[in-house]
Amino acid sequence: SETSIWPRGLPLDMVRKRVPPIEDLAVQRTDCPIQQGLADLNPDVDAIYRLLFPLPVSFSSDRKIALGRDSWCPFNSQNTTWYKNAFPLLYLPSYCSFRMTDIWRSLVAQRIAWENDWAILFDRPSVEQERNEHDLMQDFADEVSGYINNSKIARKLSDLTLNPGADEIASNMEKCYSSLVDLGAVPKEELGLLHSWLDDIQNL
Fold first, then answer.
1. What is the Cα–Cα distance from 76 to 168, expressed in whole angstroms?
2. Helix (H, G, I), strand (E, B) or coil at 4
3. What are the backbone dihedrals phi and psi of residue 41, each rounded to the nearest 5 degrees, phi first?
4. Which one of 57, 99, 147, 167 is least enclosed by Cβ atoms within 10 Å?
5. SS3 70
6. CA distances, 175 to each of 50, 76, 105, 124 (Å)
7. How do residues 141-184 score in pLDDT, each as one tens digit?
8. What percent of the chain has pLDDT over 90?
9. Are 43 and 5 in contact (CB under 8 A)?
10. What does the alpha-carbon distance between residue 109 and residue 169 come to, in Å, rounded to a whole number?
11. How confident is the model at residue 198, as a pLDDT?
12. What does the alpha-carbon distance between residue 131 and residue 44 come to, in Å, rounded to a whole number?
């Protein structure tokens, strides 16, 4: 989009950071088992954006971009396609705000995707969203934990030593969510839910 806009979960100090023109980026085939489709009209932006900037917004329909290793960008649970090899990464943390659960999932998923040579695809808009009524100030309050922690989480996850391969996804998830516990982003009770999720996935 030519509009100044950013995805929900992007740290506020990154909003004005310049990005390379899409024309300068390489064109290549890549494996993208997680694909975020964009939403026209009322996309999934944070409360600050909705309080300060006008909507609706429409995105360009002639471009898509895949982000690989060391390229962080939060993605949400709306209009997102997950292929079977990425199913374990669908786990949504429960001991955090509703406005951060899919964002923190996306950060963990990206970090583990790097170990499997997967990119995260941000695809062209494929839906138009008519958003239901929200209390924007409550949304803002629920997003504060992200403004405070998202950069810390990304740095912590970047520093982890993970292992490649589909068989390592579960142990990598345990390492990632343990790092969120170490940061104080979620309590240790989160790990019990994660283990139940991984057991269920294993038994499917």
1. 24
2. coil
3. 75, -70
4. 167
5. coil
6. 35, 22, 13, 33
7. 999 999 999 999 999 999 999 999 999 999 999 999 999 999 99
8. 88
9. yes
10. 10
11. 97
12. 9
